[in-house]
Records
---
Amino acid sequence: MQADIGLIGLAVMGQNLVLNMADRGYTVAVFNRTPSKTDEFIEGPAKGKKILGSRDLKQFVAALKQPRRIMLMVKAGDPVDEFIEHLLPLLEKGDIIIDGGNSHFPDSQRRYESLKAKGILFIGAGISGGEEGARHGPSIMPGGNPDAWPHVKSIFQSIAAKSDDGSPCCEWVGEGGAGHYVKMVHNGIEYGDMQLICEAFDLLRKGVHLTYAELAKTFESWDKGPLNSYLIEITSQIFTKMDADGKPLLEKILDVAGQKGTGKWTGIDALDRGMPLTLIGEAVFARCLSSLKDERMKASAYYKAPDAVFKGTKNELTEQVSHALYASKIISYAQGFMLMRNASAEYKWNLNFGSIALMWRGGCIIRSKFLGNIKQAYDKNPQLPSLLMDHFFIEQITRCLPSWRKVVAEGALMGVPLPCFSTALAFFDGYRSPLLPANLLQAQRDFFGAHTYERTDKPRGQFFHTNWTGKGGDVSSSSYTV
């Protein structure tokens, strides 16, 4: 019996993907660097299923149908390259290597180009949904060599989550590193969603002293409306979890956030592109600030919290926060799709944004009802420059705006940090402004560095320099954009 696909790396994600494939009728060959782990899996969760254990790579490759389809579920970085090097002598032209880990997209782009030159087809597949998604249906974002897609399409789409209309949350993204790029932006948006939810919790807890039972009920009700999402759902459940002593477990968890780098990658890429991805950037910095626990404890002794209190009712603040959360979420996704649009143009990926929204409807961590509205927006206008230009989102922002402004103001008055709510509102006000103070900024740059400026009464692309003091001369520096 030969296998339809092989998978290397039997940590929890790898094991669950294999079991998912086997449940859908595929025969899967597996290999792990540690043979005992392969044996434990074959004799344990895989027992009785069409899963073939291999103790060395030669045996593993020999067990695969041609063209061989090999999926790597190993730690991102050097381990991926090491396995590729070990596999290459055993493969033939037309065989397929799939990296399903959390790789950085430039690495996937490099691997795609290197393997293409050797006749090997490469796919970099972003996978979201955690261990539960891997077992029962993740969101899969494949990119790389398009010649490989027909050979893995049926497998990937059968194991992927399904949206409400039954469509698989998996579709071809684009060439090169496109799959892992879209997964990177997904993770950045995930950072933003999580931080926005944390800010909503913080303001409701400190502003009107909602109990954990009240918070759970509030988030449960939110999950039944426009804010419906996986993260809202699990947050309502977190509020109800009690520790062994009967007190809320959340109160025992140290307020120091971890991160694995994908949000940071998104922020760095946005800076490199000159794209204003402000909300995701603030979400990353909020995690960094949380890590300064000792300094924060010392600073709290020097600075007294404001005496201001919210003068309305619990219901009033709860409703205002729900509107601010929804509007800020729109900004986060609008920024993420603006970033992908910029990258798509540079790399000529021709990303289908409606399809991406559909891929995120199920299985992944940011899955939500809201993504259906994004798909509709791009279905109506595939060239939409920003979600903020779509009629549905214009209506939603307009509806939420008064509450959004009140929430940001109340947070500032009460001394409750709302970095993502605040930056989302600042971005919106900047985006909707026909005139920004960048004219003064350009005057300053020209004054001290002769960096030149454009004029409102001249065509775009013409640059001018002023001798502001009469002593600086008329020579300007060259114009360039970082």
---
Amino acid sequence: MEADIGLIGLAVMGQNLVLNMNDHGYAVAVYNRTHAVTEQFLSGPAKGRTDIVGARSLEELVASLAKPRKVMLLIKAGSPVDEMLDRLLPLLEDGDVVIDGGNSYYEDTVRRVKSSGSRGILYVGMGVSGGEEGARNGPSLMPGGESAAWPLVRGIFTDIAAKIATGESCCAWIGNEGAGHFVKMVHNGIEYGDMELISETYHLMRDAYGLSHAEMAKAFTDWNATELESYLIEITSAILRFPDSDGSPLVERILDSAGQKGTGKWASQTSLDAGIPLTLISEAVFARYLSAMVEERGEAADILEGPAHTARKASPEALDDLRRALLAAKIVSYAQGFMLMREVGSSRGWELGYGSIAQVWRGGCIIRSAFLDKIKEAFDRDAELPSLLVDPYFTRILGDCQNSLRRVVALAATAGLPSPALSAALAFYDGYRCAHLPANLIQAQRDYFGAHTYERTDRPRGEFHHSDWTGTGGPATSNSYNA
């Protein structure tokens, strides 16, 4: 038997994707660095599936594949991918396809597309979202790289991807070079933002309003029947209901130190390089760093004073304020993510289809939500939309919800509860709608101490001026540059 595709890496994601592929009629050859893992998979989850075959070596894996060969990697990002490619590529031939389905940094994928292409190998960097459940039953897939590879892998990936209610697949070709992994990186940044916003809302419910876990769970369940309908809202309700062995809420016994694998950090770093204010997502990344300082925070809690606060009763109006604030902040988070994609995509020459990306995220992935249908509609109306904030649908929602966001941020401040992502959402909204920011004073300061020059409101853009603020500086100016 010649397998349709080979898969390297049999951790939980790899195993579930293999089973998913096989459910859709594809024969799969598998290889894992530790062969015992392969044997356990074949005798366990894959038992009885004769068209899933194990290989003891890369040579055996490659020999078992139909041509042109297709090999998918699901291994740890970074140097392990390069090390595997060093071993794998010499075994392949012109026109064979390698697909990296891990969370690789998109710049690494750009490099690998070029280096593989020089050897005649078609390289694809594909974002995979949905976790264990998505991999098994239908993930969101974001392939990009060498476009000649797409016709060779389109069938299998569109088949195994999640499907939305209209039957469309949550898989689409994203673009050249590292576009697929770039879009997955932005997806993960938005995921960081969503999770932080929900956690801050839970914090306010618990400590500002003193709600029970049953009451909080009910609120999230109710919200999941509104514009906030999403996977993360749904699982939050389930988590809040989940008991420990003694019946108490398990969530309160989980250490408040959030982990991360780097994709949110990459999104923030990319935004700084691109000059895009990814403020909410960056605050979500920093919030995880702060959470990791468990012992230090514990000591500071005994030293630093906060406001006197007693939990107040949560009226229906107060809970609705929380819901509206969360919705408004969520819109800002997505808006920032799409702004980053627009800027980087444009600078790289990637023709990213933003409506198509929203549809790919509509099912299977961690940030899937009904809300994404409205994002697709926004970009269908205007493919050059500069920001979701100025689309009529989202403008209306923000207008309806902005006062709730203000009240919730004020509540957090007066209660002494941190709300970095909610506060960043409000600050960005107010900054984006502000026609005259105080940056004129910053430019005056820069020119005063460093002769960095400034533009004038009564002169054309691009014309720079310098003032001798002290009478001793003279006409010399600093070189103009933007870091």
